[in-house]
Amino acid sequence: MEDELQHVLWMAISVAPSHGNTQPTRILVAHTPESRAALISSLSEGNRNWAPAAPLLFAIAAAPSHDTTPQDFGGTTREVWAMHAGIAIGNLMAQATALGLIAHPMAGFDEPGVRAVFGAPDDVRILAVVAAGYPGDPASLPEDLARKETAPQDRLALEHLVAFDRWSDVNAVSARELRRRNR
Amino acid sequence: MEDELQHVLWMAISVAPSHGNTQPTRILVAHTPESRAALISSLSEGNRNWAPAAPLLFAIAAAPSHDTTPQDFGGTTREVWAMHAGIAIGNLMAQATALGLIAHPMAGFDEPGVRAVFGAPDDVRILAVVAAGYPGDPASLPEDLARKETAPQDRLALEHLVAFDRWSDVNAVSARELRRRNR
Questions:
Q1: Minimum CA–CA partner of A112 in chain B
Q2: Which of A71, A86, B16, B101 could serve as a FRET partner for A148 with CA atoms 20 to 30 Å apart?
Q3: ipTM of the complex
Q4: pTM, whole model, 2 decimals?
Q5: What are the helix (H) ranges across B15-174?
Q6: Which residues make beta-bridge pairs with B104?
């Protein structure tokens, strides 16, 4: 993928907001063939079936020690680095889509393995591995992946996701349970 | 804010991807004046100075028990609900911007307090409180907030955020440390 396009993707991650502007998110790019091969080896088997076709592979990492820990009124604190990395991933996906690209984040990978690929220390957390590139033809995929790629997007009805003023049982039920009931 | 616009914001959160399509993210909307007042009381003092002017206030929550826990090759597992909620927040911000709105997530709040506003159980985590609305005139803000609002966006140089093939000391240094050095 062209360097200019990659640069726009990194900028989308860079401008993502963080509480206190701590910017704990890092981007680990597998640039050389050796790095790419090592990163692919760190993916789950399912992801190894399709991700190697993407021209751009990188990991989204976070340095929790860089981040703030917002405090509740009672003095307990909360970690926000994973949310911060997530916001950056959301920004990245929107920017990729606007460029006619796809950025597909994966959670199926070996975290110690990905750290080892880049020589990142143990206190750096790996949130996602992202495959990015131009959309391809689903017909080029194996049958099971092609079916997945062309299936309609399945999402819960909004009533399960949104609570107006009051949390209720409708919000408490999980997507897994709802899909089991509808099967 | 018009119900149709709000609906588009909830849809942006709803379509955000999650590993295994678990959709652990929930939206807790302070709709009545009582809920709004209670939610505002749960904000940090700094946020109470500006957020009440927003026509729409809501919390982004997550139900960790709904979510998957991806497994490393050695059998350890990772929690991904906070990243999932973050991706949804990133989607929300992009959608709000596309609509000419602003969606401003805050981490400065009291988590038990926000849960209490909505009667959400203890195992529901609150990731952010979001103030959304049309952009206002910075001149209407108190002087310190107006300065903050109109200041240029300050972000680290990309070399600190992006590692090509190899993690380095340039990636390890925190935004806080870099800004201290440049002061």
A1: B72
A2: A86
A3: 0.97
A4: 0.97
A5: 33-41, 45-48, 81-98, 111-118, 143-150, 158-161, 169-172
A6: B131
